[in-house]
Every structure is written in structure tokens, then in C-alpha cells.
DNA sequence: CATTGTGCAA
DNA sequence: CACCTTGCACAATG
């Protein structure tokens, strides 16, 4: 039996005993008062008439109904109910600068305003004041956070809808096909969704929404992607579904006969590398060869374009029956049983199926095409389920790993894992937890539940070490069973089963590999991984990093991240690359529970000084120079200075973040504080961090974007941002995450501070509001202060007068990029070579050149350069050069 | 083993 | 409405 401390796994087992239903996902979990009348007359929805394809059109209609922006927004001024006014106010409060500009409610933010128009004629139901949510015809849902039934409704809504924005009083959610897939994936059936939604809603659920829900959920779970002997199969008890999928060219082209080799065949190195031959090895190989034989026949048939195998696979399509031998796995029986018991759904797909005897049919797809197939299937609204029945997997050797007896996991971690293991199997997906909320422990717990070979992917070498450390901290895994693989650590993998921790770039690296690396990569790609853990999963959609998913084969994938956002549009790719978002913690809930520090966010407005602003406005000033000017704005510096001084007096630990290295250096130098950036060697870094941690006299350090990731400073409780990477919401959230570690002085008030210094009337204002969006959606509010620069006493400042300001301005205008400096150096070296003798490389010549360059005769310098063949074709340099 | 170069991500 | 620098990982070099 399981130790009573492992509540989570306790739950998993019980979940299974209860017949595969999610253990806290059934309708009963969303209890509402029984005297609420159920006014949903489950009208019979005719599945036959509506195929899943309709969902997309419905979605279009839904969005179209949102209508023209401006008119709706202005006409919505007198929303009918008090709570809608409240919503609006709240929404506006979320945006930092609402006073003068009404137009800056952008993107998703305006939906609430528009929707007010749409629901004028909605009828309120009895007990509507008790019911916590509004369901609008466009699929948006609003939840009153003050409702006594908030928690029930919250649990339900996060399961079926995407959180859009969760400020203090009213939360906005949105129904999307993906969110509904995820809901069905965690075992909430369609009728329950509609029923509970209706019960919670103040107004009857609009027909459009119900239709949308049904259309989205009807085809979910009909087809499945499974991994067998390192080959991928699309499998379904419904031949019709497979036929449908095969109509898609992407899918049909990805199809592969059982015995066919993929073109990208690995080097012929078959000599016993496949180590699946464990305890059940004999049985496995027997089944394997039988399967191959059976499929070979099928493949032949397909080649001939002729006879269908199996009665169900007619219609000109030749389906490869799943060989009987493959059905030995319980997984299949359970699938069949589920389909059998699926009472509420007399599915059109099953029309020809003999009720009790569901047999799975399957066809193989190329491993290299899995990504595209999944995307295509998603687009067709037959999202492929990926579930791993790890308890009944006898093919892959088990891994000896258990949580230590004293390991405890928190309620929300357990909850997130319950979404993953809800029906006793492991489903692929993404868990979103804020920084410092224990993502690693969540991942480790998942790995020790599955107990199969586990591949962990991280973004950097240091986090590889951290993961290994955490595995050893929380579990009893043997030293021989866990290994790291980075450019400088190459540990041997356990042949049987083990945990391997590596980086994305290690796997996706395209260039020449060292011999030892080649060997390890080979074993990684050959192995059938039980579990793949993707740390910082928001990086995975990147062109190179997503390759890891086609290179490594895993039964189940779990992505972890704190910030599921990107500034490009690739984030939604994760839906088919990994799976649905299984759980997203609410930052404010965790703050209230004391798991996170209570952060006061402040945006400090710093007016530009006259000289800096006139430079800023000059025509022909490059974007980079403009950026430098608003960062180096003396009022910003003095604001920073003032904040540092103030927090020093409180004995706080302050981090100054600067994305731009030049300005960071300048600030740090003038303030006389240590700073770390990319070029700071490791020894120096740990020395500075060490003193910052322990020395009460060193309470302030500067960090470049090295601090955004991979530097952990639990002691810090104040952040001052002096410069940032444009509108990166991820950076903003990640920086805030640095001070989220709960602080000891919890007295209900703010115990951490997050300042962003913004030069007014510059593009920095725009970026700043963009950056804050993610945090605003998590419920943070930004307080705007305007007078800090003047509040500071000039005489105490290191930049007290106009003369010193002008000096800074001068330096700012002369600031060179690293690239420019390198080029200068190169050019100098070249000049030296031209002059001839190496001995002339003396100080005199070098100095002269340097001074000349610094004096700013840029144009001529580059012109001269032009007459020579370009020494290097760095694209960045090229464009700059062309400009001049 | 410290540095350098390349390529990538954001 | 895009902005383009900075940091990192990896392998190869002297």
C-alpha cells in the first residue's frame, strides 16, 4: 500500500478503482444548491446531422458576432447590471494608464465591452444572484469572484475554458475548441459540461454556446495516437474515423506500411542496441514479429490498391487492422470498454459497429510526420488522444523510483497532477505554475508515478544540474539510474531504464557532434521513452527546439512553464505538439495562500529631460539611439537612485534589471553597485551573488537578462526595471518571478516590490503596457506614480545638475554596440597588418586609431571599409553598414 | 583548459 | 507596428 503521505497517488489508485472516471472531475464535484432549478431541458441533440467540422464554422460565427469595436464600446456605457459596470471598471483599472486614453484597451481586453451589447435581452434566471457566472453568446464566460460558489465554479471553468483575464473581482474565461478538448480529455462528458454550465449561469446558456460545445466535443477521443515498438499508429475503434482522417493529404502521405523503413533511416547499427528485451522481452518480440507479419500482408494489399482487410474497412480504403497480437495490451480493452459504456452517445461513427465487440483498427504513420499529422487531425477536429497506460505497459522496463517518505506535495500540485492522471493513465499536456510554485517537484512526482524511462529537457546546463539535484532530493532514485547529458557532462545512460536530463539544444543541435555525443544521441533516439518532461515548455515551438519531439519518442509528454506566452503566434502549436493545457494555477490564489510573496507592482513615470527629449525627437535618430536615450534619461536614473536609497533604509534586497548592457553598466557604475551580465565569468558571478546573499552591506545588484533565467536569488524582494526587451510579457513575468519566493515577514501587506521605470512620451510607454498584460491577466494591478524623480533630493544624487546630465548624454550618444566595437578592433588589426611589421602593433598606433574611431567619424570609417572585401557577413552588421 | 566561432532564441 | 541586441549552448582551436 502507499504511504499515507502520498495523497496524490492515493487518489490516482482510487481514481482507477472507480472505473476510470476522473476522480474529481465528475459532475458531482461542482456541487451547487439542489434547490436551484435545472432549467436545461436536455433537448436531444442530433449527432447524426452535425459532424465535428461544424465547430470551426461555429467558432467563426461566434467571433463574428462580436461585431464592430468602436460602436459597441461606446454604446455599452450604460450596461444594465451593476456587476457589469464593475467588470468594466475592473478591466479598466487593469490597464495602467486609463485616464487620458480610452483607446488603449486593446486586443482581448475590449471583448467585455462589446459583449455588453450582446446580452441586453438575456433573461435572468431565478436565484440569479447566487449563480456565479455569465455565459455570453460568443463563448466568453464571466465569473464573479465574490460569489459564495466561486470555488466550485472556478474549478469547473478552468477545466472547460481558457482563462483570459483574472483580475480581482470578475474573471473572464473563453470557450475554445482546445479548452473543450482538454475538458473531455479530463473525463468531463459533453452533457455534464452543458448541464453544469447552465446550473451555474445567471442566464440560460445561449444556444450558440451549447451547439459549439457539442460540436467541439463530439469527435474528441475517437482516435488515438499510440507508440508501439517505437512506431507510431493512429488507432480507433471506429474505422470511419480513420477513413475520415485519411482523406487529409497530410495524414495519408504520412502513412507507412508496417515493415517500411522511414527514409530518414538511422545508420545501420542494429546490433542489439534495442534493450527492450527485459522480463517481458520474449513475449514482446513474439508479438512484434507476429504483428509485422500481419501488417506486411496488409501493406501488400495496400500496395495493390485492392482488398480491404477486415469487414469494417471497406469503401475503397484499405485499413491496416491492428493485429490481434497488439491487442493483448489492456489499454485496448479499456478503450473498447469505454466505447461500449458510452451510453449517452449513440455515435454516428459507430453505426456499423457491432455494439459489444469493438475492435481497434490502426494504421502506422511516419515518426517524422507525427507532428504534422497531429496538426492536421487537430485542424480536422479529430484531435488525437495521447494517453499512456503505464501501469499495463509490460514492454518497457520499469524504473525504480519512489518519492521519499518525507516528500510532501502541495494541494495545487496534486490538483494539477490529478488532471494528468485522472483516469489512471498518463495523458500528455501542459501544466502552468508560477515561478517558485514548485514546478520541478510536480514533474518529479509525475516521473515517479509513471516509473518508466524518463527524458527531461531543459533550456540550460545549470537547470540540468538543478533537475538532477531535485530528483535526488525528492526521490530515492539510484545514482546509476539518473544521468545528465550536456556539452560538458556526458554520463552513461542506464541500459535498462533511467532518467536522462539534457538540454533542448543538445538534442536539436544540427552541427557536427563529438563521437561520444553521437553515441548518446543514438541511444536516446532508439529508446522508447515512457515519459518526456519538457521544462520551460514555452520555448518548444521554436523552429529548432520542436525537433526534439520528432527525434525522441515518448508515450507521454508533460510540459511545464510559468509563462505560457510568446510574442509570436506559435504558442498554440503546443496544443498539437504536446497536448492541451491541463492546469493553470491562479497566481492570486497562491499569493493568498502564502505560497507566493505579495507583490506591489509600480510603474514609475519619469519625464524626459529637455536635452534628452530633443535628441530623442531629432530626425534620423536610429531606433537603438532612441532606446538608449529613454533608458538613460536622467530622471529615470534619479528615480532609480531614490528607490534604491529608500529600500536600503528598509533593509530590502534590491535587484536592478537592465536588458540593455550599456545602460546597466552605467547605472551600476554610477550607483557603485556590482552587476552581472553575459560576459561576467562564472567565478565572478558566484562571488557577487554570494556577497549579495549573505553580506548585509551589499543589498543591491544589477542584472542583465542573464537574471531573467537561470539565476536564483531567493533573498531578493525588490526589483527595479530600468530597461526591458520591448513588449516581452514573458520577460516581465519572469522577472517578477524572481521575487515571488514567499517572504518571512508575512503580515498581510506587501512584502515585495516590483518597479518599472518608464520614460514618459516615448515608445517605452507603449511597450510597458504590452509587457504588463500577462501579469494583469493574472490579477496583478500596476500602480502608477509620477513624482518620484522630484521626490528625490537632488543634492544627494550622483547626477545632481545639468552639467552631469549633459555628460551622460554625451556618453549615451557615443555608445557603441558590441558589434561595432568588435568591428573597430578588427579594422584596427587590419590596419596594423597593412602597415606591416608586427612590432608596430605598439600602443601608439593602436591608441591613435581608437581615439579617431571614438571621435565619431563613423561615416568615413565605414566608407573606407567598403572599398575592401567585407571581412565577415554578419547580417546585422551588413544592414547597419548599408544604412550608413 | 581557456578562448573562439557559429547558430539559435527571444 | 516593428523593434535587433544579448545570452547561451555547443564544438573546435591553440
Automatic annotation (TrEMBL):
Specify the domain of life of the species encoding this protein.
Answer: Eukaryota
Q: Which Gene3D superfamilies match?
A: P-loop containing nucleotide triphosphate hydrolases (3.40.50.300)
Q: Where is the Helicase C-terminal domain?
A: 638-789
What GO biological process term is on the record, naming one? transcription initiation at RNA polymerase II promoter
SUPFAM superfamilies xrefs: P-loop containing nucleoside triphosphate hydrolases (SSF52540)
The record, for InterPro entries, names: ATP-dep_DNA_Helicase, ERCC3_RAD25_C, Helicase/UvrB_N, Helicase_ATP-bd, Helicase_C-like, P-loop_NTPase, XPB/Ssl2, XPB/Ssl2_N
- Acidic residues: compositionally biased ranges: 23-45, 98-109
Any idea where the Helicase ATP-binding domain is? 420-582
**A family per Pfam:** ResIII
Q: Name one GO molecular function term.
A: DNA binding
Q: Does the keyword RNA-binding apply?
A: no
Bias-annotated ranges (Basic and acidic residues): 817-830
PANTHER family hit by this protein = GENERAL TRANSCRIPTION AND DNA REPAIR FACTOR IIH HELICASE SUBUNIT XPB, RAD25/XP-B DNA REPAIR HELICASE
Instruction: Report the protein name in the record.
Output: DNA 3'-5' helicase
Taxonomic source organism: Ectocarpus siliculosus (Brown alga)
Amino acid at each position: 500500500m502507499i504511504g499515507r503521505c502520498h495523497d496524490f497517488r492515493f487518489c490516482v489508485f482510487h481514481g482507477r478503482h472507480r472505473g476510470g472516471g476522473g476522480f474529481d472531475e465528475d459532475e458531482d464535484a461542482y456541487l451547487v444548491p439542489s434547490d436551484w432549478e435545472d432549467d436545461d431541458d436536455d433537448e436531444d441533440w442530433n449527432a447524426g446531422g452535425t459532424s465535428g467540422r461544424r465547430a470551426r464554422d461555429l467558432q467563426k460565427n461566434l467571433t463574428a458576432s462580436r461585431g464592430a469595436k468602436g460602436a459597441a464600446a461606446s454604446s455599452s456605457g450604460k450596461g444594465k447590471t451593476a456587476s457589469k459596470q464593475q467588470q468594466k471598471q475592473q478591466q479598466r483599472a487593469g490597464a495602467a494608464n486609463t485616464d487620458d486614453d480610452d483607446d488603449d484597451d486593446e486586443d482581448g481586453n475590449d471583448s467585455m465591452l462589446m459583449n455588453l451589447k450582446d446580452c441586453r435581452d438575456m433573461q435572468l434566471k431565478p436565484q440569479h444572484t447566487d449563480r456565479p457566472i455569465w455565459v455570453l453568446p460568443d463563448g466568453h464566460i464571466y465569473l464573479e469572484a465574490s460569489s459564495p460558489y466561486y470555488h466550485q465554479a472556478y474549478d469547473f471553468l478552468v477545466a472547460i475554458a481558457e482563462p483570459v483575464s483574472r483580475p480581482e473581482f470578475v474573471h473572464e474565461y473563453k470557450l475554445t475548441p482546445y479548452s473543450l478538448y482538454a475538458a473531455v480529455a479530463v473525463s468531463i462528458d459533453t452533457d455534464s459540461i452543458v448541464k453544469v454550465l447552465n446550473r451555474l449561469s445567471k442566464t440560460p446558456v445561449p444556444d450558440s454556446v451549447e451547439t459549439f460545445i457539442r460540436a467541439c466535443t463530439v469527435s474528441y477521443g475517437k482516435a488515438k495516437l499510440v507508440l508501439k515498438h517505437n512506431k507510431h499508429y493512429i488507432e480507433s475503434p471506429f474505422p470511419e474515423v480513420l477513413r475520415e482522417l485519411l482523406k487529409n493529404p497530410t495524414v495519408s502521405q504520412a502513412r507507412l506500411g508496417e515493415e517500411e523503413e522511414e527514409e530518414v533511416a538511422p545508420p545501420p547499427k542494429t546490433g542489439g542496441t534495442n534493450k527492450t528485451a527485459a522480463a517481458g522481452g520474449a513475449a514482446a518480440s513474439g508479438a512484434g514479429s507476429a504483428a509485422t507479419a500481419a501488417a506486411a500482408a496488409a501493406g501488400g494489399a495496400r500496395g495493390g490498391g485492392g482488398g480491404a482487410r477486415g469487414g469494417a474497412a471497406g469503401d475503397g480504403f484499405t485499413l491496416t487492422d491492428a493485429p490481434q497480437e497488439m491487442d493483448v495490451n489492456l489499454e485496448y480493452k479499456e478503450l473498447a470498454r469505454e466505447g461500449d459504456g458510452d451510453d449517452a452517445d449513440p455515435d454516428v461513427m459507430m453505426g456499423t459497429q457491432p455494439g459489444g465487440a469493438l475492435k481497434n483498427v490502426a494504421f502506422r504513420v511516419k515518426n517524422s510526420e507525427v507532428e504534422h499529422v497531429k496538426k492536421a487531425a487537430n485542424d480536422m477536429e479529430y484531435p488525437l488522444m495521447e494517453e499512456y497506460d503505464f501501469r499495463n505497459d509490460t514492454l518497457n522496463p520499469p524504473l525504480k523510483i519512489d518519492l521519499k517518505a518525507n516528500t510532501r506535495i502541495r494541494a495545487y500540485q496534486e490538483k494539477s497532477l490529478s488532471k494528468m492522471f485522472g483516469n489512471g493513465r498518463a495523458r500528455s499536456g501542459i501544466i502552468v505554475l508560477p515561478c517558485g510554485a514548485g514546478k520541478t517537484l510536480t514533474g518529479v512526482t509525475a516521473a515517479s508515478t509513471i516509473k518508466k524511462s524518463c527524458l527531461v529537457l531543459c533550456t540550460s546546463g545549470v537547470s540540468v544540474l538543478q533537475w538532477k539535484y531535485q530528483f535526488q532530493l525528492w526521490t530515492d532514485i539510484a545514482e546509476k539510474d539518473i544521468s545528465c547529458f550536456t556539452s560538458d557532462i556526458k554520463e552513461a545512460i542506464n541500459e535498462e531504464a533511467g532518467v536522462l536530463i539534457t538540454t533542448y539544444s543538445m538534442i536539436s543541435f544540427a552541427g557536427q557532434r563529438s563521437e561520444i555525443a553521437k553515441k548518446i544521441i543514438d541511444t536516446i533516439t532508439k529508446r522508447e521513452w515512457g515519459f518526456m518532461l519538457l521544462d520551460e515548455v514555452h520555448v518548444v515551438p521554436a523552429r529548432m527546439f520542436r525537433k526534439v519531439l520528432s527525434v525522441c519518442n515518448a508515450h507521454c509528454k508533460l510540459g511545464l512553464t510559468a509563462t505560457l506566452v510568446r510574442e509570436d503566434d506559435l504558442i498554440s502549436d503546443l496544443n498539437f505538439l504536446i497536448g492541451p493545457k491541463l492546469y493553470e494555477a491562479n497566481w492570486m490564489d497562491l499569493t493568498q495562500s502564502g505560497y507566493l510573496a505579495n507583490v506591489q507592482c509600480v510603474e514609475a513615470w519619469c519625464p524626459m529631460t529637455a536635452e534628452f527629449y530633443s535628441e530623442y525627437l531629432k530626425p534620423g535618430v536610429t531606433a537603438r539611439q532612441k532606446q538608449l536615450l529613454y533608458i538613460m534619461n536622467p530622471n529615470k536614473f534619479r528615480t532609480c537612485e531614490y528607490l534604491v536609497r529608500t529600500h536600503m533604509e528598509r533593509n530590502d534586497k534590491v535587484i536592478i534589471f537592465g536588458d540593455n548592457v550599456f545602460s546597466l553598466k552605467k547605472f551600476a557604475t554610477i550607483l557603485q553597485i556590482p552587476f552581472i551580465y553575459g560576459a561576467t565569468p562564472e567565478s565572478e558571478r558566484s562571488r557577487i551573488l554570494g556577497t549579495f546573499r549573505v553580506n548585509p552591506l551589499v543589498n543591491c545588484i544589477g542584472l542583465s537578462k542573464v537574471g531573467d533565467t537561470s539565476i536564483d536569488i531567493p533573498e531578493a524582494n525588490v526589483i527595479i526595471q530600468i530597461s526591458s526587451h520591448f513588449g516581452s510579457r514573458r520577460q516581465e513575468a519572469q522577472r517578477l518571478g524572481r521575487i515571488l519566493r514567499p517572504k518571512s515577514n508575512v503580515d498581510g501587506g506587501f512584502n515585495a516590490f516590483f518597479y518599472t521605470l518608464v520614460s514618459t512620451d516615448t515608445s517605452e510607454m507603449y511597450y510597458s503596457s504590452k509587457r504588463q498584460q500577462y501579469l494583469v491577466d493574472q490579477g496583478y494591478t500596476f500602480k502608477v506614480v509620477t513624482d518620484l524623480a522630484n521626490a528625490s533630493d537632488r543634492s544627494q544624487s550622483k547626477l545632481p545638475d545639468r552639467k552631469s546630465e549633459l555628460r551622460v548624454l554625451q556618453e549615451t550618444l557615443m555608445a557603441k554596440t558590441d558589434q561595432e566595437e568588435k568591428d573597430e578592433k578588427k579594422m584596427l588589426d587590419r590596419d596594423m597588418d597593412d602597415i606591416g611589421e608586427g612590432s608596430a602593433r605598439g600602443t601608439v598606433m593602436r591608441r591613435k586609431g581608437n581615439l579617431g574611431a571614438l571621435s565619431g567619424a563613423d561615416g568615413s570609417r565605414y566608407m573606407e571599409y567598403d572599398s575592401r572585401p567585407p571581412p565577415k557577413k554578419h547580417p546585422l552588421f551588413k544592414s547597419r553598414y548599408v544604412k550608413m
